[in-house]
């Protein structure tokens, strides 16, 4: 028979766990860092979303310019319903043409873009295009709406 020798477990007094106070201090530091970083990140996200809306507006403008080239320098008359002419265009004789866009884009918040021609929003000959912006309320291009005439300084 073998003899089993048991050794008592010795605790090393130099290895202790963290105290509650130390844990609370670490959590407070993490909280302060998060309070500084999270708002900055959210601000960057909002800016990126606004830039995406501006890019979509620019894309609509370019498609409308192509439409005007094919239609005697005339943009579609009317409101946002007129944008359907970009995906189902016809020539002067009513014959179907290749679409300028596959589909009408929506803004980054999932809302429709607004369109007006002739433009009563700004003193310019180009069509007015705008998104209802982050609050998703159509302010006719003002408020937090993102539009294509603000960059003109009008």
Notes on the protein architecture:
- The protein has one helix at residues 20-70; strands at residues 114-116, 128-131, 146-147.
- The protein is mainly α.
- It has a 3-stranded antiparallel sheet with strand order 1-2-3, with helices on one face.
- It is elongated.
- The termini are far apart.
Write the layout of secondary structure elements.
Layout: H1 20-70, E1 114-116, E2 128-131, E3 146-147
Antiparallel strand pairs: 1-2, 2-3
Keyphrases for this structure?
mainly alpha; 154 residues; 3-stranded antiparallel sheet; 3 strands; 6% strand; 1 helix
Compact description:
This protein is mainly alpha-helical and 154 residues long.
User: Helix proportion of residues, in percent?
Assistant: 25-40%
Coarse morphology: elongated
- Spans of 5+ residues with little confidence (pLDDT < 50)? none
* Class derived from helix and strand content: mainly alpha
Strand share of the residues?
5-15%
Spatial separation of the terminal alpha carbons: 100 Å
Question: What is the element string, with H for helices and E for strands?
Answer: HEEE
Mind describing the biggest β-sheet?
3 strands, antiparallel
* Overall mean pLDDT: 87
Q: Count up the helices.
A: 1
Q: How large is the radius of gyration?
A: 30 Å
- The largest beta-sheet arranges its strands as 1-2-3
Q: Would you report the number of β strands?
A: 3
């Amino acid at each position: 028979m073998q003899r089993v020798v048991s050794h008592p477990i010795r605790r090393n007094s130099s290895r202790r766990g963290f105290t509650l106070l130390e844990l609370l201090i670490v959590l407070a530091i993490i909280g302060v860092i998060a309070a500084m970083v999270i708002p900055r990140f959210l601000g960057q996200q909002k800016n990126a979303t606004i830039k995406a809306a501006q890019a979509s507006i620019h894309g609509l403008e370019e498609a409308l310019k192509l439409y005007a080239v094919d239609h005697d320098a005339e943009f579609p008359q009317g409101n946002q319903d007129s944008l359907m002419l970009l995906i189902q265009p016809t020539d002067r004789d009513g014959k179907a043409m290749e679409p300028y866009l596959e589909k009408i884009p929506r803004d980054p918040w999932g809302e429709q873009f607004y369109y007006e021609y002739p433009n009563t929003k700004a003193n310019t000959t180009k069509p007015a295009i705008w998104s209802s912006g982050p609050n998703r309320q159509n302010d006719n291009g003002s408020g937090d709406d993102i539009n294509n005439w603000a960059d003109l300084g009008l």
